[in-house]
Amino acid sequence: MSADRVRTERTGRFGSGGGSFGAAVGAIAATTCGLLGVFLTSALAPLLRDDGIVTPAGLGIATAVFFGVSAVIAPLGGRLADRFGSLRVIRVALMVAAAALLAVATVVQGWQGLAVALGCAGATNGAIQPSTNRYVSRLVSPQRQGLAFGVKQAAIPMAILLGGLAVPAAAYVSGWRSIYYVGVACALGVALTLRAPSSGGHGSTPPATTAAATPEHTANPLPRAALIVLASGWGLASAGANALGAFFVLGAVHAGFLTVTAGLLAVLGSLSSISARIGMGMLADKRSGTNLGVVAAMSAVGAVSVALLATGREWSFLFAAVIGYGIGWGWAGLFNYAIVRTSPNRPGSTTGITQAGAGTGACLGPLAFGAMLGHTGYPTAWMTAGLTLLLASGIILTGRRMLPARP
Question: What subcellular locations does the record give (predicted)?
Fold first, then answer.
């Protein structure tokens, strides 16, 4: 990567003008657009089902394709970002995301076409995730990176929130295809407007003050075995959490909620998760250590809330919306922050590997959940998702013990 591009991506800081605030906003906007395809589809699934576009099993397959392709592309996306710069990779990916959303709105007639379109969208997500991790790590000071990664990872519940808000609009106003047109406009708008944040008139931050040069970032490199174990833990957690995200609205409708009410419950869950991710990021900036113990504890709490959905009671869906989304799925920013702190010199490549684990779990979780619905029904599927989150908690703790001691 050229020296000019390195300097361009090192100019922003929290508390040093508007540069790194722009970095956080740009990262969450780009990541949200990369996820819109899958979470709009999940939220609008009852309407797509009514039009014969998708069945529960078809939704599971299409969602699995999205995250499966994302897992395959993520390591490559991280390497490309480290080599060519984050912004270039993000812009190209957003244009492909816009094309995938347009395809759903105009040509998709069944779950097979939907799976192809979501596969293309998944490729963009795989490229955007590690690229925005690198973008944040290069533009935000170490003292604010916990908050920055929390804001960035709030993109996932933000995409779910937008999907939930789209349900009443699609049901009563404009139809579901128009929602995808809005998504196209958003992705193109972010691609065209995303820029390297300026230093706000305070000048460029010298390279010597970047995250990689600060004392707290001089720990030994992350061992590959620990990286694989942690990626596996994130994969299992993503399997349970993304099954919740993909089937929450359909499951709530099955439990007796109106479609619009189920969509609003998803909005509540999204707000809870956004608050948790940002709040835990702020707290992480005040703590030492990797925060992986906190990640494991949050995953365990989420396991209980998801398993309670097996009761089929309406109160359990309200509980899962607040606790399952908020605590059980509110730690992704902490996880990325931990990986970047431990391996700051290659944030794109390293988080590309962990993102591959997350994408693999997010692929297999909804696929298995959708298959289980056809054989065992919702109670067993929800219970299995909860147990998966609990197992993930234990594996993350194992990976934490494999990390080298910090100076």
Answer: Cell membrane
DSSP one-letter string for 283-351: HHTT--S--HHHHHHHHHHHHHHHHGGGG--HHHHHHIIIIIHHTTT--HHHHHHHHHHHSTT-HHHHH
Give 200's DSSP letter: T
Outline where 255-291 has alpha helix (H): 259-284
**How far apart are alpha carbons 402 and 183 in whole angstroms?**
42
pTM: 0.70
**Is the separation of the CB atoms in 245 and 403 below 8 Å?**
no
Specify whether the CB–CB gap between 137 and 86 falls below 8 A.
no
Read out DSSP for 124-172?
Answer: HHHHHHHHHHHHHHHHS-GGGHHHHHHHHHTHHHHHHHHHHHHHHHIII
- 370-394 pLDDT per residue, tens: 888 878 889 999 999 999 999 999 9
Residue 279 class from Cβ within 10 Å (0-12 exposed, 13-18 middle, 19+ buried)?
middle
At 289, is the pLDDT very low, low, confident or very high (cuts 50, 70, 90)?
A: low
Backbone angles phi, psi at 18, to 5 degrees: -90, 5
Using DSSP, state whether 359 is helix, strand or coil. Answer: helix
Nearest by Cα to 37 from 116, 129, 130: 116
Contact between 8 and 134 under an 8 Å Cβ cutoff? The reply is: no
